[in-house]
## 1
Amino acid sequence: MLHEAPAASPATPPAAPSAGVVTALEALRLELGGDVLQVGPGLDVGRLGKDYALQSPSGAAPLAIARPGEVAQVAQILHCCNAHRIPVVPQGGMTGLAGGAVPLVPALLLSLERLRSIEEIDVDAGTMTVQAGVTLAEVQAAAESRGLFFPLDLGGRSAQIGGNAATNAGGNRVVRYGMMRALVLGLEAVLADGSVISSLGKVLKNNAGYDLKHLFIGSEGTLGVITRLVLRLQPKPASTATALCAVPSYAEALALLQRLRAGLGGQLAAFELMWPAFYHLATTLAERQPPIDEGHGLYVLVEALGSDPGRDAAQFESVIAAALDAGVVADAVVAQSVAQARSLWEIREGSGAFRKHHSPQLPFDVSVATSDIGAFVEDCNARLRARWPLAKILYLGHAADGNIHISIKLDEQAGSARQMDDVVYAAVRDWKGSVSGEHGIGACKRDYLGHSRSEAEIRLMRTLKAALDPAGILNPGKVLPPDDGVSAGV
Amino acid sequence: MLHEAPAASPATPPAAPSAGVVTALEALRLELGGDVLQVGPGLDVGRLGKDYALQSPSGAAPLAIARPGEVAQVAQILHCCNAHRIPVVPQGGMTGLAGGAVPLVPALLLSLERLRSIEEIDVDAGTMTVQAGVTLAEVQAAAESRGLFFPLDLGGRSAQIGGNAATNAGGNRVVRYGMMRALVLGLEAVLADGSVISSLGKVLKNNAGYDLKHLFIGSEGTLGVITRLVLRLQPKPASTATALCAVPSYAEALALLQRLRAGLGGQLAAFELMWPAFYHLATTLAERQPPIDEGHGLYVLVEALGSDPGRDAAQFESVIAAALDAGVVADAVVAQSVAQARSLWEIREGSGAFRKHHSPQLPFDVSVATSDIGAFVEDCNARLRARWPLAKILYLGHAADGNIHISIKLDEQAGSARQMDDVVYAAVRDWKGSVSGEHGIGACKRDYLGHSRSEAEIRLMRTLKAALDPAGILNPGKVLPPDDGVSAGV
């Protein structure tokens, strides 16, 4: 078997729920109505049973499925589950890549899909107040409709904005705008005991006590359930400049990055590295004419977002031209139209090519210091090749923020997911990197958390978990590795 | 009496320390050496007794003063103090404005001033790893020496960088670069029990478990003692454009802000509002020729930081000119030299004028939604005038991020600090603002925390405090209002 699901916590009873739990859920169903709460057994899980990650575990059969339409109902549900020790798995768009929203134990699935109101767009303050179940695509469109811009962008735009916050989503524009954490001004969450923490301020400057929102952003539903957000919007960029550059090696990629940072005055919005095997897959194998010949050391997709279409393009081209003159860039193509820019992005996204030539695949989402990326990729590749000389391995990444994606085709040339995890995460540990740059830990990487975080850090995480969710009902088994029952939930 | 210090916690014994405490401190002194730990009574507190805030309480006489030169010594000190329930007050440059580093009870003063090594500057990654006691001025200069830029800037540049992080410092460039929280990639802190939490990663993208650094940033030394930081550096701006604009009212100031945001492509770095009484003080009263006549509704100091000196200036001037043509701006002066820019900033900083004509003063640092600033200032002013018709009150602020500073001259026309606090913070509460935009809560504002945060939020803050500092030794009496001994420390 190629994919090994994380084992459910040993304390988990696989048996039928206790009479007390059945009675409590039935009473809750009568309070909330059958459209808000369905109680099992035999529930149709549909899309709530699985996320986008191939190696995610198959979800356990749920005890109940809740689809609250109001924050007060979320509070009621959590209050009841906490009192009766019923595990709760918060769920958004199910586009995650780490098994974070897949139930490992029989649980109440808490889908935020009906909390889908855009409550306010404040153009002066540059903010949008939304409920958690609004999709990323809807948030982007709503900002655009008011002449503003919500910069978070990633492949799964049917993700819910609450899930984007719970997982601190990243994507392609982090180098300019930051991760989701930087785009959230205010946040409302419901704690395990049902109390509602409403910190929905709209200001950038607020130092009135502890900044509680950061507890919930990126903790993957293990410390509370995010119900509403105040998002920070940006001015809509008036110009986009896109180029594909070939560089001899990672040293020149770094030099190009410094030139772009210095020359574009903060307008650099994407700096996407593609190693040769990936470039080959996304062009020649995908029957797409390579815009620059194959054979270079590395390819970089560069994008700048500016405010003055005429002058920005000239400035962008002059920075690229200077890099060519200096020998930092070996060859370059600057997009002359929106369609050309789109086709350069299609290469980076590997549209079609992945599915056709590199599927099923095991994806990694790691990060190391930007200065170490080149050497890390070489080292990691050598370790993988030593074990699986013929495996098909691709490297690409958002290099300006240290994030590297590795994709290994799962075929007879490769090892098991667990074996390859072991090799890649050992390399990450040795380079003092992070086992998750942007996808999160979820269920898939919890056994490797200690590769990137010290015992003291993990102990502090457990302290927080125990303080905020003493009964361990919230998303049990996620993020933190099992600790003999201390934090692994029910 | 104009200034009323917050009362020390009623549980605090004002008497001599117990024999156990004396013995423990003496043993610690023998371990660490007399240069690291001085034990009282009769210690010369020097600059560690008082911060920059006039209304800060007079510090209690310390039990001991520690000046550790290594992180391991910080850990030893905290471990000992935790075991013996000795209050610890972490101290940086003592430039705070909220009494956060002033001891309210007899305590060990833990000065970070000897942790002053700049450990690494990584130009490729754009990071600087520093110990907590390095001053802001030193960090700025070290970045500059490598062709990079650390954007945090504020009046008290002798502040220590650890204190900047502990208080989540703001300043003038937040609109572009964010507050201190956004400038910290990694952080090391020592917990109350002496365990060292080292999260010194250098990457922008890191989702490996809870992001612990945010617990320590902005919690004013009540949850842990920050010992090291990895700072995010920026490319050094190649151009600076500065202008002073007069606008008829706050509505036009907002319209100007939108134009600058849209027209400057993210280069807007400061948008500083000055209401007429402040402008009068900083120009005419200070014997400085007003660059724009008095009599306008509001004055705005605008600064943009760019990458191309020639083109940025033209772009900046064209945005200002368009705002003049549209009637948004009534009059404007664009600085034509560094000296002119400097003299415009001197107006905003009120250099000299404050000391001479508006001292002593009671400063406020509040924030409300950017769209509400104009109406908030009117309402707050009306409330103050209703009580003290002749008080001298100035308003200025970093409006793009919602932050407003109010300064009331403490003379016979004004009320007591407590009375005026009551009026201003009631207005902040009614406008759903924050009683601290950037200075923090410290000792001075803890009684007003509930004006900006709900009971549920404060309860969660107490939960965090109890989880991380169960003995309540860390900076007792700060941030959280007393709660019958639950979190108020020793």
## 2
Amino acid sequence: MSHFRIWFVVISKSKHTDMATYAVFGTGTVGQALAGRLSSLGNRVMVGTRNVADTLARKENDMYGNPPFAIWQQGHPDVQLGTYREAAALGEIIINCTTGQASVDALTSVGEADLEGKILIDIANPLDFSQGFPPSLVVCNTDSLGEQIQKAFPLLRVVKTLNTMNAWLMVNPALVPGNHTVFLSGNDSGAKETVKTILNSFGWEDRNILDLGDITTARGTEMLLPLWVRLFSALQTPMFNFHINIAGR
Amino acid sequence: MSHFRIWFVVISKSKHTDMATYAVFGTGTVGQALAGRLSSLGNRVMVGTRNVADTLARKENDMYGNPPFAIWQQGHPDVQLGTYREAAALGEIIINCTTGQASVDALTSVGEADLEGKILIDIANPLDFSQGFPPSLVVCNTDSLGEQIQKAFPLLRVVKTLNTMNAWLMVNPALVPGNHTVFLSGNDSGAKETVKTILNSFGWEDRNILDLGDITTARGTEMLLPLWVRLFSALQTPMFNFHINIAGR
């Protein structure tokens, strides 16, 4: 009986760990969470930043008390650091974990040849903290950051996802009990299927992955952020998520 | 044993049915759902409208196939119909179920003496369907309809709630299985406590009522609507709700 069990384990491992190379744009908490998780799953990862020397020189924790990239990298020696351009040249899939206001500039610094046909997983939110708390959105209502990126870079296959929750929860849904939801928005069905497989590898079950439709539906998930920040205040923890309960399902 | 049981039923009925008089502004589905439920619970209800004759003359179903007020009222003979002013003069509590763009005008047509100190339960959303689907919001991001109403009518104690779900679910949460969430926003703690009791009478358990804070948090719940309408499309049913899953609770 035991060799059947081993065979089953090998099959299920293979389903969830198709190795790939990833460019993770952004050296903050979201970038660290994504890069660390992808690397631990056996993928090759290069984190992209505007200026490598500046990133490595940073010594202060961020506003939430998370460590600077150089400290974090000591525990993740397999994760490389390069410019946005270097990371995009390496990565088959690009993950945008920059702040929303820096996203288009980051992608503009990459040559078109290194973007063409690639999936961009867009996790950024267009939050503006310049007027303090609560933040407002730089773009919303009749447009979204996801749409702006897709429009500016038509060569990319943009999939907006994971932007509605805490960074550690993105890559480890079991941190919140029970079923809860991750949304998908994008124009390319094949790209969304690939992203679902990546989400599966993080622990997201298919029944909790909800495809909203084309990239214009990113308006809805980005506009969830004003509620998210108020829930963070009211609940005094970032470790929560939205679940969609549906009658009869 | 049986008279103890009866005694228990009487106590629990009394807890949930402190009778009051309600002015329900708006003759559409949301107004019908709220007025019908409050009336069936034994409350006195007058629905308020801009023009009573116009409302009674309407013969067509709305865009969702719901009946016009005159047809609906045949099944709810205890629910009265009057002008906004007449309804507000009667109601101890006012419930705003108008379309968001009509809300301030409706309240302006009421004399200050009939608003002073009253709770206004604001269920309206500032949706603009003039450009087709998806609707946009007339106000969002750095302001909200809830705040605009509170600012225009400082005599009212505005509590924003129930605006994030289908009308029938508002008054019957059991239509969606399991735990799911209704949000509260408002500056007046006492008013929010009263509204919680009303929500309890509809079937909402305390653990599913989530107080977000002051009326500025209405930005978050109103900005949930762009996601709600896309979920309605993706799920092909309006009978769903958001639940907040929280680690360790």
